[in-house]
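[User]
If only I could read C-alpha cells as easily as an amino acid sequence. I have put the entry right below:
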Amino acid sequence: MSGEESADSYDVVVVGSGAGLVGAYTAAARGLRTLVIEKTEYVGGTTAYSGAGIWLPGNAAERRAGIKDGPDIARPYLDAIVGDDAPTSLRDAFLQAGPRMIDELEDNPRFGRFVWRGVPDYFADRPGSLPQGRTIFPQDIERSALGDLEPLVRRPLWTERWGVAPGPMMTGGQALVGRALLALHETGNGTVLTNTSLERLLLEDGTIVGVEALHDGQRVTFRARRGVLLAAGGYERGGALRQQLQGGFGDHWSQGCAGNTGAALRAGIEAGAATDLLEEAWFAPGLVVPHARPVFYTSVWSGIWVNAAGQRYMNERLPYDRAGHEMLRAHMTSDVSHIPTHWVFDQRQIDNERAFASLPVDPQVPGWFDVEKLVAAGVLKRADTLEELAELIGVPADALLASVERFNGCARSGKDEQFGRGEDPWDLMITQIAGSHTDGPNPCLGVIDRPPFYAATIVLSDLGTKGGLRTDENARVLRPDGSVITGLYASGNTMAPMSGRVYPGAGVPVGSSMAFSYIAALDMVGEGR
C-alpha cells in the first residue's frame, strides 16, 4: 500500500487493525490518505479471533431474511438493559449508523453480502428483544483471494494456541478482517504498518495532530490532518494495569489478543481524556485446560455448576457474558468462593460426542476434549461416586449430593424451579447446536446419575475489557468537563461502550466497534451521520 505524499503525513491515522479497519476503509474510500498502525506482526487483533458476529439492528441482511427490525424496535431494548450506564446519544448514533454502514460496505464486492443467522438476543424478557436475533456474519473468503496480503492477517485462535493449520478458507473474524484489508488496499489510499506501536499522541494547542510510534524499534512520527482514531482494543492483557483497574484480576484467563495492553487507553488519558466503566469486561466462563488459556465456553452442555460450598447458583445456560457477570457478582457478594466454579456432569456428557464436536467454542479442534489426557493433567476429576468426586474437588459431599438430587428432580419434571434453565431462546439454541443427551421433557435438563462422574474447572475469562475513553455521539473523545479533544476519536474496546455494563446480543463488541469507527471516519470527512 502506498501514497504519493511524504511518508510521515496523512489525513487520518488509525491505531489498531481490528474492526477499526472499517473506519480506515471509510476514510480511504473518500479519498483521504489513511495510515493504520498495528503493534503486532499481524493485522486483526481480537476481532480476528472472533466468530465475527455483528449486532446491528435493521441492517440489510436482516431485511433479506424477512426479519422485522430497526432502530425504533431496538431502542426500547437497549434503553431497558443499558439504562443510565451509557449516554442515550451513543446508542442512538449506533442505531442510526449501523444500517447505513452495512449498505455501504455491501456496495463493495470485497465485503460481499453479510448473512443473517438466528442467534437470539441475550435478554429475552426485555421489550424489543428478538428471539430470532439480529446478528449477521461476513461470508467466508478464500485465503488465495488476498494474495500478498494474506500473511498479514492474524491466524485463528486455534492455530495460534493449538497449532492447528488454518485451512484454505478464512472464516469468522479472519474473513471480516481479510475482506476489510483487501477493500482498504484497493482504495489506493491506505497504508498499513505492522510492528508499529503507539508511544504517545501529538498535542498542539489542544488539538491532536498525530502520533509518535515505534516502528521496528525506531521512533517515528506520523501527522494526521483530519484526526487520529484509537481502535486498539482494551487492556485485558495489560498485566499490572489490569490488576490496578479491575481489583486484582489479572490477565492470565483472558481470550484477548496479546497486543491489547492498554497503550491507546494510556495515551488518551495522558492527552486529557475522560474514562468510564474501566472495571468492566466482556466476561465469559472459561474451561481450564492444560498448557493453554481457558477455552471460551459459551454455555453448559449438561450437568451443573457448583461453588466451593457444593451449591448450584445460576442457570448454567445463561449467555456467556451474563454467566460471567453472575460468577463475579456471586463471588464478590458471598463468603463462599465462586471462582473457580466446578462443572459437575456424568458419563452421558462424555458419550454425547456431538456436544464436544459441534458446540461453537474455541478450539475448533477435533478431539480437543480428550478425557484421559485431561484427567492425567489434573484439570478434569473423575470418580465412581459423587461422594468421591466431592472429596476430589474439595466441596462438602452432602451439599453436592443435595444439589444433584434437586437438579435431577427438575430434570425429571422438565422445569428448573431454581433458575429457569431451558426457558429462554438462547438456552434452546445451544441444545439445537450441541444436541440433547436427555429424553426428558426439557432438552436443557438431563439427569446426572450415570457413573463415572466428572468435575471440570470453570474460571472467569473474558473476550476483552470494555471500559475506555469517553466519547460523544460522533466518536470524538471527551475531557472530564465534557469538552471535545479536537482531532481525537475512539472506537471498540478503547472506547467506553455504548452498551454500558451489558452484552445485548451476539456481535455487539464487533458491531459497535465497526459502527463507531465508521462514525469517526464520517466526522473526519465532514459528512456526518
User: Anything to note?
Assistant: The radius of gyration is 23 Å. The longest strand covers residues 218-230. Confidence is low (pLDDT under 50) at residues 1-6, 357-363.
